[in-house]
Amino acid sequence: MSQENIDDPPTEILAETSNVSELRAQRVWCLARVAWFTWIFFTAYFWWREHTIGVVVSAVEVCLIQLIIGRDRQRSQYRRVMNLTLGVCACGILLVSISDQALRLTRFCFPVSILFASQLSGVRDALMWLLVNLLAHTMYFVMTYGPAEAYSWLHIDEVIIIYGVSICTFFCCQQGEAFYRDRTKGLVDLSSTLQKKSEWLEHLATTDSLTGLINRYEFLQQLRRRTNQTAEHVQRMALLLIDMNGFKEINDTLGHPVGDRALIEVANRLQDGLKDVAISARLGGDEFCLICPDIASVPEAKAIAERSCELLNRTYAINEFEFTMGASVGIALYPDHTHCATELLAFADTAMFCAKEKRIGFEVYDPNMTKQLIEHRNMQEKLSRALANNEFFLLYQPQVDIATQRVIAVEALVRWRHQGTVIPPVIFIPLLEKSREIIAVGQWIIREACRQLKVWEESGYDVGVSINLSSVQFNDPSFESNVLAPLMQSGVDARKVDFEITESLLIDDVNSATQRLLQLKETGATISVDDFGTGYSSLAYLRHFSLDRLKIDRAFVKDYPETDDGLIAKSIISLSSALGLKVLAEGVETQAQLEFLRLNCCDEYQGYFMSPPMPAEDVAKLFSLPFALSGGESDSALQAPQLVHP
Ligand code: C2E
Ligand code: CA
Ligand code: CA
């Protein structure tokens, strides 16, 4: 796609000559019609005044001009029309002027033809008309006075006047034409500039200046035009709304120039790859839209969506950077889903949102999606008031030392009680992260967990508390005031506090992660890597950071011993020991799982086998219940713990 710099006004000017010709052609046709009417008038006038020859000459003139106009209808023939018309008129004037003594002065009409010629097709033609005039005058004198008398002193005044008027007219025309030419050129230039300017403004108003695709305004215009069809002429079409995944990160980390180039590349891929089937538009930011006319079926629309995902998922190489961005595509069909342009766009947006949530490339709109989206938005709204309404509370799940069977710490897990229903964090944490309200809620969680820890400390319990940190909290500039400050202000022994972070958070920005982890460690708190093994699983990064513990994700424990030989769990345990880190297994539900972990030297566990998450006062009952190993190594060594349900 050619990248036009639309900040520069267009340089090409319409060919002046073609405009001048156009103007002249119009005037010649006007002249021919005026001459025709004039001779009609004279036919009638001479008939009334009983100048018989005049009547005949005028009638012949009318017929001849009629013939000229009829024959050379094309505008390009205007020069010939003018010459023929003037020629015919010159003959007519000559004949009328010599037909009667009373009509002699008619010959003064000759110079008028010079005026016409110069006005209509320039001085060069007027020069020819000067010659025609001189010839006509000569003929007049010769025919009127005879060759001998015509140029004698007898008629010298008449000769001088009539020739003089003709020549003078010609020179005046010559002067006039220069002025006329300049003025016409000025007008033509002006009109051409105005035309170009208006084209340019239209281009600005309808084109996205970065990518050269049509912009939101033009896109909506086109969409409205296409959805304004009459019932009999409805043409099916698909609307594909595309949102780039991970563009914000590219923009934030590699800078805006790279982000801009990436958007141009996206536009080029869509334009080049789909130009036969779709009109591409950029709606703003990293949001693009395709209008696909003549779509016969849903599979056809899906094929285009698949193709666009395939095009956009390819690696981007910009400057020295190489990266990938995914695309989420929402499909809505006209008229299947709606007849209204605005709704069609909203439906494609809803479908795109679902595709993004589900992390699948594309999704076709389904009316249920709107319902879900409304529920989702309602929830988001209610959630934003939840903190102020005191609707969050914490449950605590024990973390047990496998060797001693003692509860050494608890993990604080947040819950939301809304209108009598307790909503689990997997539903609302992503929403809080999206709206960044997790920062305020996270601060409350740290405060609350530390407050509870302080209560336990004062009651003489020797336990720690693990607090989950979201990547949004971790990466926010307010990290110190929202994470460190509540911990420091709580007055607890920070060594009893453990922060659980995820692998992805470490990978995203190694330098800033290192810095922040150090700040956390300086308080005395420890750091665990949560859900270990599910993320990047790149072991190289572990060395870079000062970590204390890995938490083996439940996925590597839950199927043991049925379908899994526990190989991954075993390797994570060995890895932790090689790196000098503690290791905790999550989601332990059975004695067999616990036994397996114990045999493989896992340090700690957490899971329903010991206890589900429960309120502070209930979990405290477990602190004083050391599940001692009775008899050491035997299989029966691990007793089923005494579960206390919340
Ligand atoms: P997580 O940090 O991996 O927390 C462990 C989750 O596994 C908890 O779910 C817990 O109830 C569940 N679980 C523990 N033992 C077992 C078991 O034996 N079997 C099974 N099937 N599940 C078990 P929960 O409380 O619903 O939390 C889910 C996720 O929500 C957490 O995963 C964590 O990522 C997030 N989350 C919870 N509380 C907080 C919080 O306070 N802050 C932040 N940022 N995230 C939180
Ligand atoms: Ca956790
Ligand atoms: Ca976990």
The geometry reads as rod-shaped
Q: How much helical structure, as a percent, in the residues?
A: 55-70%
Could you say which structural class the secondary elements and strand pairing correspond to? alpha/beta
Oligomeric state of the chains? Answer: single chain
Q: How many strands appear in the DSSP assignment?
A: 16
Cα-based radius of gyration, to the nearest Å: 46 Å
| Uncertain runs | 1-16, 625-640, 642-646
Task: Describe it.
The protein is of the alpha/beta class and 646 residues long. 55% of the residues lie in helices and 14% in strands. The protein has helices at 16-49, 52-71, 78-99, 110-121, 123-150, 156-206, 216-227, 247-254, 256-274, 298-313, 341-358, 367-386, 425-435, 438-458, 471-475, 479-490, 503-508, 510-522, 567-579, 591-599, 616-623; strands at residues 237-245, 279-284, 287-293, 316-318, 321-323, 326-334, 362-364, 392-401, 407-418, 421-423, 464-468, 497-502, 526-532, 549-552, 582-585, 604-605. The strands form three sheets. The chain has an eight-stranded mixed beta barrel with strand order 8-9-11-12-13-14-15-16, surrounded by four helices. A five-stranded mixed beta sheet has the order 2-3-1-6-7, sandwiched between helices. A two-stranded antiparallel sheet has the order 4-5. Helix 2 (52-71) packs antiparallel against helix 3, helix 11 (341-358) crosses helix 12 and helix 12 crosses helix 13. It is rod-shaped and about 150 Å long. The model is unreliable at 1-16, 625-640 and 642-646 (pLDDT under 50). The structure holds ligand C2E and calcium ion (2 copies). One calcium ion (CA) is lined by residues 411, 468, 500, 530. Ligand C2E binds at residues 397, 412-414, 424-426, 429, 445, 468, 470, 500, 530-531, 554, 586-589, 606-608, 613.
